[in-house]
Design a protein that fits this description.
alpha/beta; Rossmann fold; 7-stranded mixed β-sheet; 5-stranded mixed β-sheet; binds nicotinamide-adenine-dinucleotide
């Protein structure tokens, strides 16, 4: 009698969550992997999943417990690498998918990392600074056993920033007994952070946006851009597009949607968000009553830069942009991908479009090891070169194989990962 293995529920292939989306993307790329397809199961199973309880004492003396995760999806090409998200909707399916997209992304732009991701299910806006610090430190201690400069290197993601990276670095270093600046990236400059890291993801979105626009014969000057999410990624991308002469005609955040067909004053929106935590109430724009109307805003370029599964069968038909730049990870479902493809919309997938962040994280990690720091110009030049080359390679493959940019990017990324897997062989 063969042994019946119980398949963990999180590996159920046809789920509708982010992990289900990722598995469908892998199914779509598998026919293009040739002989390497025999290794494809390796991409459908995270290497390591750690679920941790994160208890803290609240300021009022009560004890609160939060659920935290660190998932190392694949380390065939190098240490795990990927951000940490603090959000009330974080689930294991989400962290698994985000870790897997990091594997594909790091390989697609050829930085020497595997893929990992972490998160805590918490609304950080409900915590005081002290509580936030205690939660971050306890989480870091709990995942301490699997992270490290040569094992797995966290970075910022939604609702985490350089202060949180500083606390993570300090906590890990206290546990090790020596300062280990290379354990996280996205740190403050004074602690071994890199110039240009904070802007890197938005800058990468902008760089590939210019490449995609050139392919479509679109002038960035005067192009109308709509952005969902006005945080680290969306806010910076919006600023760079505006500086290049584009008009930012709509911004949606977690609270509301603002529109101005003459173009928003991005610096003023940024100042408003810094003061009020949202674009809501910004005086230089109209607010749309119905959030869903955002998807039908008349624009040339759409930048989803918030969360996963935002562009779905329900709204893909409304989209009027001709180019979508995925600043967010996993913003488009496979069904929506098909609709956009039929409508002639060019989708630059997350694993290329938002790879600027991890690319400069790689620069930061390299600088930390050598204790030799580069100028911002050097960093932006190298970043721009890597982004352009990655875009060009994926574009060419998509043309040659007559597939979407997403499938082409997955072919590049998955091939590199599975070649490494095959060359290393299975242990023991
Ligand atoms: P952030 O916390 O700085 O900003 C998130 C933004 O999204 C905020 O403006 C928030 O209001 C908005 N938002 C949240 N929920 C929303 C909703 N339901 N509808 C509309 N807007 C909503 O986060 P970030 O670092 O900018 O990350 C945004 C996305 O980019 C995520 O998918 C993240 O994984 C991805 N990403 C980030 C980086 C990075 O370096 N920070 C790198 C690669 C990819």
């Amino acid at each position: 009698m063969p042994i019946q293995h119980e398949i963990p529920s999180y590996l159920t292939p046809h789920g509708t969550g982010p992990w289900g989306v990722y598995l469908e993307q892998i199914d779509r790329v598998t026919p293009h992997l040739g002989k390497l397809a025999r290794w494809v199961e390796t991409l459908k199973r995270p290497k390591r999943i750690l679920i941790v309880d994160v208890p803290i004492e609240r300021d009022n003396g009560t004890i609160a417990h939060f659920e935290g995760y660190r998932v190392q999806h694949n380390t065939s090409r190098g240490p795990g690498k990927g951000g940490v998200r603090f959000h009330q909707d974080v689930t294991l399916s989400e962290v698994m998918a985000l870790s897997a997209w990091m594997t594909v992304k790091n390989a697609a732009v050829n930085v020497p990392y595997g893929g990992a991701k972490g998160g805590i299910r918490v609304d950080p806006k409900t915590l005081s600074q002290g509580e936030l610090q205690r939660m971050t430190r306890r989480y870091t201690s709990e995942i301490n056993i699997i992270i490290g400069p040569h094992k797995d290197i966290p970075a910022p993601d939604v609702n985490t920033n350089e202060q949180i990276m500083a606390w993570m670095m300090d906590t890990y270093s206290m546990n090790q007994g020596s300062t280990a600046s290379g354990v996280v990236t996205g740190k403050p400059i004074s602690l071994g952070g890199s110039l240009g890291r904070q802007e890197a993801t938005g800058r990468g979105v902008f760089v590939v946006g210019c490449e995609a626009a050139a392919k479509r014969g679109m002038d960035i000057k005067g192009a109308r851009v709509a952005v969902q999410g006005f945080g680290n990624v969306g806010g910076i991308a919006a600023r760079l597009f505006a500086e290049a002469g584009a008009r930012i005609v709509a911004v949606q955040d977690h609270q509301t949607t603002i529109v101005n067909e003459n173009g928003l004053d991005v610096a003023a929106v940024q100042t408003h968000v810094s003061a009020h935590g949202s674009v809501a109430g910004f005086s230089g724009a109209e607010e749309l009553k119905d959030r869903a109307q955002f998807w039908g805003v008349d624009c040339d370029i759409l930048v989803p830069a918030a969360l996963e599964q935002q562009i779905t069968e329900a709204n893909a038909h409304q989209i009027r942009a001709t180019i979508i730049l995925e600043g967010a990870n996993g913003p488009t479902t496979p069904a929506a991908d098909d609709i956009l493809h039929d409508n002639g919309v060019l989708v630059v997938p997350d694993v290329i479009a938002n790879a600027g962040g991890v690319t400069v994280s790689y620069f930061e990690w390299v600088q930390d090891f050598s204790s030799f720091f580069w100028t911002e110009d050097e960093i932006n030049l190298r970043l721009t070169r890597i982004m352009r080359e990655a875009f060009a390679a994926v574009w060419q493959l998509a043309e040659d194989k007559k597939v979407s940019l997403r499938t082409a990017a997955f072919i590049v990324g998955c091939t590199r990962v599975l070649q490494a897997r095959e060359m290393r062989g299975l242990y023991p």
